[in-house]
Amino acid sequence: MRTVSILESVVIGAGQAGLSASFHLTRLGIDHVVLDADEQPGGAWRHRWDALTMRDVHGVAELPGSAPPPRDGRRANVVVPQYFDAYEQEHGLRVIRPVRVDRVTDEDGALVVHAGARSWRSRTLVSATGTWTHPFLPHYPGMETFLGEQLHTVDYPGPEHFIGKRVLVVGGGASAVQFLGALAPITETLWATRRVPVWRTDDFTPEAGAAAVALVEERVAQGLPPQSVVSVTGLMFRPQERDAERLGAYRSRLPMFSRIEPDGVRWADGRFERVDVILWATGFRPAIGHLAPLRLRSESGGIQLDRNGRGTAAVRDPRIQLVGYGPSASTIGANRAGRTAARGVQRALSRQGAALEIG
After folding, report:
1. What separation in angstroms does the CA of 250 have from each of 56, 199, 245, 271?
2. Residue 67, class by beta-carbon neighbours within 10 Å (0-12 exposed, 13-18 middle, 19+ buried)?
3. Spatial contact of 262 and 147, defined as CB atoms under 8 Å apart
């Protein structure tokens, strides 16, 4: 009879959260592999636009046991992947790529991770797939008739592409603010949001950050779909966005347009606005479709996490840890979640071992 080997854990995703989890699992001596969909290291950072520099990003938190790359004028989609690559090598993390996971199933008490014709059996799982591969695009009547360009954040080609075009930026988050900051000084822009933007005028202290994360944790603790951390922190200008502010780029059009027409958009009051490009900075949703066979979602639509939303274990199946989900969907939160997830895996393995002894 053939013996099928089984790992103690499998980590899906080699971004900030996945690498952090793998680092802590390694320190705990837990046998695992990391499965990554990309062909090279870097996670979602590999797919950012060329014009995004390390000076522009909100910040890259250091991976555990390392120093972050400097905030300078180099391209983020080059620097961060190099940083992740060196980190994997330095700590001997077992990353297998490219592996695009289709689904995770429970077969005779083992978790089976499927990727096409390949599969891995494991006692526990850390899902660190983030959000970048699951962009959210709202539907508006007539959007299929628009003759110009429609791009989402994931498609953003850099500011030079938009010179000479009238660009409508849609969305109320940090990406929209960044796009307007880059585009308003070089071309004509409009901004549309569903609600009045909330701006921060005070310093974003660690205490303020903790309070914002707590609000996201509260939703996750109730099994509600998580909101982004920035949705509860408010928006702030960086120095490079002050020119756009002086040009009036941050006066959003309210109420939101009601439909899209071939040459532009029409607001609820009947006003028509001609635009050449609609740039949807409308965010992302958690990429957790591979977990669907495990039926982890609550009746409220989200995956409820333990410890009142501050943990990473799925309440419906503590063998499953989620990092880069909800309150840990940021570089700083991902590091903390990686450590929490590794300890959660350790606890789950201990419970399984105890159950085997009793059995």
Report:
1. 18, 11, 6, 19
2. exposed
3. yes
CATH number given to 9-133+284-358: 3.50.50.60
Domain extents in the chain: 9-133+284-358, 143-199+235-280
pTM reported for the whole predicted model: 0.85
Q: Give the confidence band of 204 by pLDDT, cuts at 50, 70, 90.
A: low
Fold of 143-199+235-280: FAD/NAD(P)-binding domain (3.50.50)
Q: How far apart are CA 107 and CA 121, in angstroms?
A: 9
Question: Which residue type occupies 42?
Answer: G
Instruction: Report residue 53 as tokens.
Output: 């520099």
Distance CA 200, CA 235 (A): 6
- Token pair in block for residue 72: 């300078």
Tally Cβ neighbours within 10 Å of residue 86.
14
Q: How many CA atoms lie within 13 A of 18 on its CB side?
A: 30
Please indicate whether the domains covering 9-133+284-358 and 143-199+235-280 agree at the CATH topology level. yes
List strands edge to edge, sheet with 110-115: 103-107, 110-115, 118-122
Q: Are 344 and 312 in contact (CB under 8 A)?
A: yes
Q: Which of 155, 327, 105 is nearest to 225 (CA)?
A: 327
> What span, in angstroms and rounded, lies between the C-alpha atoms of 10 and 321?
10
Distances (CA, A) of 252 to 160, 169, 170, 217: 23, 9, 9, 29
Structure confidence at residue 207 as a pLDDT band (50, 70, 90): low
